[in-house]
Amino acid sequence: MKIGILSYYHTSKRAAPEELRLLKEARALGHKARIIRAVQCQLVFDGKNPTVLFEGKAFPKFDVIIPRVTLLRAIELQTALLKQFQLMGVPVINGFRPINRAKNKLNTMQILNHHDLGIPRTIVIRRMREVDWAVKYLGGLPVIIKTPFGTYGSGVVISESKRSLTSSLDAIWGTQDISIILLQEFIKESKGKDIRVFVVGGKVVASMMRAAVRGEFRSNIELGGAGEKVDITPEEETLAIQATEALGLHMGGVDIVRSKSGPLVLEVNGNPGFKKLEEVTGINVAKAIIEYVVTKVSS
């Protein structure tokens, strides 16, 4: 099978670790694989057969494309490339719509809440005068501030006082083109820990507990958080699978926090990293992804 790994990685001269892992495992399983950069692709609309070019020439033929979408801005414009592949009949895993749902934290919360899946209490605000009642509704300070778009912990801030909350919101609204803010309750009993559950094809492949470093509340590995293998409960497993299914993701990283009321989904990542997850668990996540993709496309 010919597998294209579509890279949105910010550094054009090298590939991301996960992209290289997918490339290696695909070739090890006997498939032809290649990393293609989104920035080198052109969309063509001529009123007849819309197509995609690669550096102005015919795009390589692939049986399936695995996108690695590392984007924070203009996401729907950038992922229009995925939509074009799908319109051309090329399987894309994950597809255009699921990736955009997962990239937008507001959309993610809407969908998870609609499906009655556990999430922290969250309020969307647009104006400073809404802050006081929102904080009261969430149970008081501290609260978590989230911008709709962000990854690896960016766009997420904790405010432990009214002054820091006001300052943070002033900074976001004053320096960024963002009008909508998500305020979310802080789960104190989590003690800076969450669980990353990696789901592929409706099955949990691997999980790890992530713990924030001293002085930090975000447990993201990219921010220095430590990871360790963890056994998740049946309830947590079901929640992770249902969360990816609700968003329409074939594969996803579900961040779950353990609360007094049970497991809650913090976020769902449609482009989850798995380098540290493989190191911590010893599980070949890249191989699991390739095997699923090949089976899905072949069926």
What does this structure look like?
The protein is built from ten helices and 15 strands. The strands form four sheets. Strands 13-12-11-14-15 form a five-stranded antiparallel beta sheet, with helices on both faces. The protein has a four-stranded antiparallel beta sheet with strand order 7-10-8-9, with helices on both faces. It has a three-stranded parallel beta sheet with strand order 2-1-6, with helices on one face. Helices cover 33% and strands 27% of the residues. It has helices at 17-28, 75-78, 80-87, 96-103, 105-114, 131-137, 162-175, 234-247, 275-281, 285-298, and strands at 2-7, 32-37, 41-44, 51-54, 57-58, 64-68, 122-125, 143-146, 156-159, 181-185, 193-200, 203-211, 226-229, 251-259, 262-269. β1 (2-7), α1 and β2 (32-37) form a beta-alpha-beta unit. It is globular.
